[in-house]
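Long-time lurker, first post. I've been practising inverse folding by hand and with some scripts of my own, and I keep getting stuck on stretches where the structure tokens seem ambiguous. Below is the full token string for one chain I'm working on. Before anyone asks, I'm not after the true native sequence, just a reasonable design that respects the backbone. If someone could post their per-position residues I'd love to compare against what I wrote down in my notebook.
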């Protein structure tokens, strides 16, 4: 499964942004999908994931502000971000685990394929 993330950009504090991840070469609806991000000088960190049964796991930084969703017809996964903060500035990556699982985890080792990132910059 190949992934392509898009939708990043430069926004102001409090703005919203929706990232998209297009999956090809497989049926994304069956897989565990996740969004990660990496800020300059920091390690890549998980943000939110969705399992093959659409169970969602969010980190504290995402709760109440970020929402992951799928469009199974279009083979897409989205990350809707709202109330953006400067600390959300990062390169955002989507990732896929092609093994079907009923629950997801944000352990990088579980993810087989990664898309190229998309930059999100939040300015105050």
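-- Answer (accepted) --
I ran through it position by position. Result:
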């Amino acid at each position: 499964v190949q992934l392509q993330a898009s939708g990043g950009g430069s926004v102001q504090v409090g703005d919203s942004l929706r990232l998209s991840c297009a999956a090809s070469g497989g049926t994304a609806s069956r897989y565990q999908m996740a969004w990660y991000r990496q800020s300059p000088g920091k390690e890549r960190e998980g943000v939110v994931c969705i399992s093959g049964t659409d169970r969602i796991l969010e980190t504290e930084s995402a709760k109440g502000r970020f929402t992951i969703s799928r469009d199974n017809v279009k083979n897409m996964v989205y990350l809707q971000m709202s109330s953006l903060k400067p600390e959300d500035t990062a390169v955002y990556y989507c990732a896929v685990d092609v093994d079907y699982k009923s629950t997801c985890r944000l352990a990088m080792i579980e993810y087989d394929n990664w898309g190229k990132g998309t930059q999100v910059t939040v300015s105050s």
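A couple of notes from the structure itself: The CA atoms of residues 28 and 48 lie 16 Å apart. DSSP finds no helices and eleven strands in the chain. Happy to go over any region you disagree with.
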